[in-house]
Amino acid sequence: RLLSLMSKPGKPFDPKRFGALLRTKELGRACRYTPLATSSMDVADKLLDQENIPHGSVVVVDSQTKGRGRNNRSWSSQNVSNLYFSLILHPTSIEEILSVNFAAPLAVAMAAQTCGVKDPKVKWPNDVWVKSRKFAGILLNTTARNSKLEGSLGVGYTVNLGIGVNINQDMAEAKSVSSGEATSIVMENGNVQIEREAFLAEVCENLESLAMLSRVGLMKKYEKYDMLVGNDIIVMPNKKEDPTSYYDAKAVGYSKSGYLLVKLPDGNIKTLSAEEVSIRPGGYYETRKKYEEVSDTKKSLKGSS
């Protein structure tokens, strides 16, 4: 469905076009669009401070001046060829929030696969990769609601789900991104430009259908796209820039609370929180070096032609 919807480079996001493509009951039905903002999550936060925003509302920004990822890492997001948006959700339980953590990257990976990306993978806790390179990042902020303060929304939680996806940009030309570090859908699907409105509609539909699954059903689906469990990984403790603090482990599963379970070289099982560590697949740095060498060779050949 998506591959037939060709995108015109540099075209602003069209909320009406997005609405016409949408096939959901709730997600995406209320759409707020702004060409430029610090980030879609900032816009969503301001809206939430001012009014009761319905479940499933989406905020889309063409260009972000202060896009951010987990642990306040910057996210290069000033290219209108890509997609930056926030979904506002109102789950009623912690269990629903945990499900969103797994469903969101899965929904993006499934949409990318529909666009012709071969074997996209989800990397706990919030990334989507292909061939050892990242093309989407997700950030989830949760606040508790009080019925006396929030009126008709009632007691529960509000989730500001920020998602950034590299879609039609050649990341090798992005000055703020090192070669070998990131990729995009167009770089992985045979250079087929994808309509951003169609991609967002697909993500919303995927997320809504995944929300209907039981936790067991969701995790079975997640396992098909998971790039960690069963494989060797590199664990990098946050706030520690010294590579000597990194250590090897093997990912063996996820706890009911959404933590990553790893097996250490001594055989002990350790529980890892997303707030405490960053994860890279085993062999990541060797693979990245190969991409950098290939990229440098291409640039050299291009410069000599």
UniProtKB/TrEMBL annotation:
* Entry keywords, A to Z: Ligase
Q: Name one GO molecular function term.
A: biotin--[biotin carboxyl-carrier protein] ligase activity
Give the GO cellular component terms, alphabetically: cytoplasm
Q: From which residue to which does the signal peptide run?
A: none
Q: PROSITE patterns, alphabetically?
A: BPL_LPL_CATALYTIC
Q: Where is the BPL/LPL catalytic domain?
A: 16-211
One Pfam annotation, family name? BPL_LplA_LipB
Q: Which family does it belong to?
A: Belongs to the biotin--protein ligase family.
Q: Per its record, how is this protein called by name?
A: BPL/LPL catalytic domain-containing protein
